[in-house]
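Case study 2.
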Amino acid sequence: MAVTSRIMLIICIITSLFYISTAQTCSGYTFSTDEVFNSCINLPVLQAHLHWNYIPSTRSIHIAYRATQTSTGWIAWAINPTGTGMVGSQAIVAFHNSSGIMTVYTTPITSYTPSMKPETLSFPVSNLSAMYANNEMTILAVVGPLQNGTTVNHVWQSGSSVSNGIPQIHPTSGSNVQSKGSLDLSK
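Prediction:
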């Protein structure tokens, strides 16, 4: 009986690990808002995922950016229309405010010490919203029209704290400096 119990325990653990590892991927993810996205990518760092629909008639994208995060941290996703890194990127950030309500806004990243205060971006962003569930923050938005075609440089980020309604600096090594790439939105 002890051998059978151990085997059953091992099977349960393996099954649980399978479900945990597949639950956080983008393929097959179901949004609580019932929104459906045609494209998605599991980003290589920061336990993040990007879902999108490219809208050719308006040269815009409807995005959902999801990342694992604690309730006291923050996340951000950005397009950089002028370069490949953080400086120059046009960001959307989300976090819980001091009342515990999800806050989402846009902010341009003009230096390595940005203000992170709400400001207008160099391109339109509409339908902004954010949600938090199961240790994961999600940003939803419509971005565009985009001026530089369907291939964009994008950056994603996360930090562990917010002070006085402003996201604080993220780590400056490891995954936090590897969180950038090029993305063909037409795929």
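Residues 3-23 have pLDDT under 50 and may be disordered.
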